[in-house]
Amino acid sequence: MALTKDHLINTIHNHLDIQKSKSTDLIESILETIKATLASGEDVMITGFGKFYVKEKRERRGRNPATGEDLMLRSRRVVRFKCSSILRDKINRGGKS
Fold this sequence. Notes:
Blueprint lengths: L4 H12 L3 H20 L4 E3 L3 E8 L2 E4 L6 E4 L2 E8 L1 H8 L5
Antiparallel strand pairs: 1-2, 2-5, 3-4
C-alpha cells in the first residue's frame, strides 16, 4: 500500500489534534515548498530522511517499443532521491527502532 497525501493529512490531523483543514494546509504548504525549491534547481535535504535533487539528462537515442522505430529522446530534468544513512539503516533493520 502506498502512503497517500490524504493519509498524511489524516495522520497529522490525528497526532497533532488540529483541524483537518489546518493539516491539509500544512501538508500542501510543505509540498509546494519542496516543488518550488526543486523547480529552481536547488536540492531539498531532510535530515534523517534523505535528499531530493534534480538531475539533468542529456538527449539520447531511444526506441519506440510498439513499433521498434528509433527516435531521439530530448534532454530533460528528473527528480532523484537519495536516502539518508539513518533511513537506510532503519529499512535494513526491518523497521525496528
